[in-house]
């Protein structure tokens, strides 16, 4: 079902890129301040869901396919676990970022960045997968 209201369409056409850009800001600013992977994943998914609600599922499938969402959730989980297990393989604890680099501060920075990226990908992929599952179930 495509929304025919021109005001909603133009507002969404302007807001969806802003929402996605804000999600990227939250994702990459999460190392230094409030925010991070979970919040960025939710905000990104909300932008895509808004696009689907206004422009229809068929047009949204041209932007992001449901299979991409499942793969993204799996890649996010894999990235999170990989960073954790690297610590174990290097003789430390799960998610101990200090061993990722020679300098512990640099290891902390890289580790937090990769974990937050994994969480962001996982949350966005899972939220969109749930959305697609509910929408496609309603079409049956």
Jot down its keywords:
140 residues, mainly alpha, 5 helices, 0% strand, elongated
How does this model look, in words?
With 140 residues, this protein is mostly helical. The protein contains 5 helices and no strands. It has helices at residues 6-29, 37-55, 57-63, 66-89, 104-138. Helix 1 (6-29) runs antiparallel to helix 2 (37-55) and helix 2 (37-55) packs parallel to helix 5. The chain is elongated. The two termini are 14 Å apart.
Uncertain runs with pLDDT below 50, 5 residues or more? none
Count of structural domains: 1
Radius of gyration: 18 Å
Helix percent band: over 70%
Query: SSE order, as H and E?
Result: HHHHH
Total number of helices:
5
The backbone outline, from C-alpha atoms, is elongated
Which helices and strands, and how do they pair?
Layout: H1 6-29, H2 37-55, H3 57-63, H4 66-89, H5 104-138
Helix pairs in contact: 1-2, 2-3, 2-5, 4-5
Give a brief outline of the structure.
78% of the residues lie in helices and 0% in strands.
